[in-house]
Amino acid sequence: MTTLFVASTGGHLNELVTLAPRLVPRDDDILWVTHDTLQSRSLLGDSQTVFVPDLGSRDLPGTAAMALRAWRILHEYRPERVLSTGSSIAVAFLPTARTLGMACHYIESGTRVTGPSVTGRILQHIPGVHCYTQHAQWASGRWSCAGSILDGFEQEAVNAAPRLDRVVVTLGSWRQPFRRLIEHLIPLLPIGAEVLWQTGHTDVSGLVDRPTPWLSAAELHVAIRKADLVVTHAGMGAVLDALDAGRCPVVVPRVQEHGEQIDDHQVELAAELGQRGLAVVSEPGALTTAALLDAASRRITRSSDPRPFLLAPP
Fold first, then answer.
1. Would the pLDDT of 8 be above 90?
2. Where residue 158 falls among pLDDT bands split at 50, 70, 90?
3. How many separate domains does the chain show?
4. Which residues, other chains included, contact 290 with Cβ-Cβ below 8 Å and sequence gap of 6+?
5. 193 and 119: one domain?
6. Does residue 308 lie within any of the structural domains?
7. pLDDT bracket for residue 45 (50, 70, 90)
8. Taking Cα atoms as reference points, which of 196, 253, 204, 252 lies closest to residue 228?
């Protein structure tokens, strides 16, 4: 076994799948370790995969139990290197891999624009774990910058008469609800618009008649490619789905104040996307029909061969 990729599902897994061709040769003998969900089975397909129990955010007892499971998996497969984009599962696997002498690389999520996550702050103190930020402005000391998941994406205006006939609204897999977005968005959508509501853990009773809490990655990708407009929270997985499909999303960040996230990193990512011209950014209460049409009038293109993400030598 050459490379073990390990990540929590959601944006962390989506980022690692997207980055993988830039990290290691395509002919590497690769093993994936993640949680068993519609998303992971759809994204990874027939790739060699070991599914492990899901870990909640900052679940210390669960992380300790996962470390024991990690030792068993690593001892069985003996990979040369272990790479992760987080979150709690990385705290279980990377220190364990270091005790077995394996090369370890932790790539902080692109959502962390101004500094590391709790996972990153823990792993930066583990000797031998190479740590990478995707934002050069805070690279220093233990953190190097070797590239970003957003490299190569560019915006272009292509549609002078945008339509909102088909809309995808996706709230990802985050456990905390984001009902505010749905409440403010519904009055802005045209009557008769075909809307796919991927609502995850958000209770939309009384607002949406036929929500679709969960979709496979393949189903969501197809829907987004057919859509005139994508509206999403500022989760990296959902944003990447839109950008990969050539759509400029309306991005509405979850905020800690309203119990929608554990901190305000989504606000930081939304600002970064807006600065790069890769999203139309708004708070729920500030959403307008004009903002929706603005996003629908743009398209996203990308380089067919983004530069490699250069890992530190062992």
1. yes
2. confident
3. 2
4. none
5. no
6. no
7. very high
8. 196
